Amino acid sequence: MSTDIDLTGFITLLRRETLRFIRRPRNTFIPPFITNILYFSVFGVVLGERINLIAGVPYILFILPGLVVLGAISNAFENASFSIFHGRWNRYIEEAITSPLSYRSMVIAYVLSSALRGVIVGILVALIGAFFTAVGVAQPVYLAAFGIIISLLFAALGVAGGLWADDFDDLTMMNQFILRPLVFFGGVFYSLNELPLILQQVSLLNPMIYMVNGVRFGFLGVSEVDPTQSLIVLVGLTGIVVIGDIVLFRRGYGLTE
């Protein structure tokens, strides 16, 4: 009986969180649509005509995987963090935490719905890129695996961020001043081989390098780091963050005054 209640509650929460962003495309899908048209127009078309091939591919095609990563992780993180914080702010998250639903099911529902938004936006960015250049998929399994796992990872991080934030400014700060700079310095617009050796070594400390190169391997079949090792590490890291979210929910971190 408890299993039936947990499953019903999980599906209900997952459906609510999914419909929350699907019903508001002006806030969820149109902004990344416009932003990425600008990215492809300025960096891909204008600058791409002045830059030689990178890793044997046209510049506009080289930057596409990084923009896909940026769109996916930003939206997955933003969806989870805003949903959790908004629920805390308006106190309707209490409906979930006082229900028979297990903490594990709550966290997974929030993470899956937010990851879905990240995947959808990532696909949207790729489709926008297809209007500017010929987009192929060299390694579909790797592309799907990296796209899903990075969305799940940042959705899980977004849950923790939503519990930690004290106000809406904290949410903006995390997305705009932490995530985006890491992505921009994660090899989106340049190749690691173009950097001095010391900067190459420092760049390898940036986890975005592995995500961007993993998605790039999926699209183009080229990568500056081992995609299999990167994927294994990301899967493990995602599991750790999700477990951490469950522990935070169980302890009531950020949920109780």
From TrEMBL:
N-terminal signal peptide: none
Subcellular location: Membrane
Membrane topology value: Multi-pass membrane protein
Keyword terms, alphabetized: Membrane, Transmembrane, Transmembrane helix
GO molecular function terms attached to this record: ABC-type transporter activity
Keyword Transmembrane part of the UniProt annotation: yes
Coiled coil: none
Protein name, UniProt field: ABC-type transport system permease protein
Organism from which the protein derives: Haloquadratum walsbyi (strain DSM 16790 / HBSQ001)
Lineage: Archaea, Methanobacteriati, Methanobacteriota, Stenosarchaea group, Halobacteria
